[in-house]
């Protein structure tokens, strides 16, 4: 039975976030508009993660490498969080399927861990164009399978931002297809969910997004999903059979072009009978939570993610 998604418009945008958005529009967006998406240039994209070594996680954070996967992964525990917690979050980083990794997202993930009071398994899935997208999805499903060896599915929340938000939807869908149980919840930050870029180009935010030029997203799709049908339900979340998914939280910035995907995904989830809350944050850019050091709204949003994870994994709530 269809359910209406809950749309929450979060008002308020601090001066620092507004200044950061203006700077990104003047400095970062022009660079992205001109940067060629070629095999040669994409060879250097993973180096962005190495450059993030200066993004030190909050004091008291504990990081432990994880073995047994075909890709790198680590446990991240925010200050005061114990590995004895039966609940856990499985997190997939963003980066357009070609960049970022464990280091770029460790600081934000540590904050999410602290807000939720549970450890986070952060996965550095193999990226395009070095491997096909199915290998990436398989890496994420394998990480979920590994987590199921130590925790019950009702104690696991799957999360991710941007491209990782895409994987936070696709991994549970493919896991269900493989006969694995569904997780307790899914939390996504500015998720990429629709392989068709034209609706994003037509969206009002295409003209005001601080650093994502909508038209350049076709380059990402052609590189990372070569020859794919944009309506393929096993590659496009908005076209998938979503009925088996658990409750979902989606956070998106009010001025980002990916808001088009967030809105459509919330609509499709509701039509499939999946409870979904879409939070639209005034004046915020793509994955603004990663800029929580200069945006108090990012800190508030991270607390909301933690609260969602606790609610989703509360046995009493599930029993009710």
Describe the protein's architecture and organization:
Residues 89-289 form the Alpha/beta hydrolase fold-3 domain. It comes from Actinomadura meyerae. It contains 11 helices and 9 strands. Helices cover 38% and strands 15% of the residues. The model has no long low-confidence stretch (mean pLDDT 95). It has 320 residues and is an alpha/beta fold. The two termini are 19 Å apart. 47% of the residues are buried. It has a 9-stranded mixed beta sheet, sandwiched between helices. The chain has a single domain (6-313), classed as Rossmann fold (3-Layer(aba) Sandwich). Helix 6 links the parallel strand 6 (156-161) and strand 7.
Q: Would you summarize the structure shown here?
A:
The chain is α/β, with parallel strands linked by helices and 320 residues long. The protein has helices spanning 15-34, 39-42, 47-51, 102-116, 133-147, 163-177, 198-202, 217-224, 259-271, 296-312, 315-319, and strands spanning 6-10, 62-65, 72-77, 88-92, 120-124, 156-161, 185-189, 248-253, 276-281.
What are the SSEs and their pairings?
Blueprint: E1 6-10, H1 15-34, H2 39-42, H3 47-51, E2 62-65, E3 72-77, E4 88-92, H4 102-116, E5 120-124, H5 133-147, E6 156-161, H6 163-177, E7 185-189, H7 198-202, H8 217-224, E8 248-253, H9 259-271, E9 276-281, H10 296-312, H11 315-319
Parallel strand pairs: 1-9, 4-5, 4-6, 6-7, 7-8, 8-9
Antiparallel strand pairs: 2-3, 3-5
Domain Alpha/beta hydrolase fold-3: 89-289
Keywords: Hydrolase
GO molecular function: triacylglycerol lipase activity
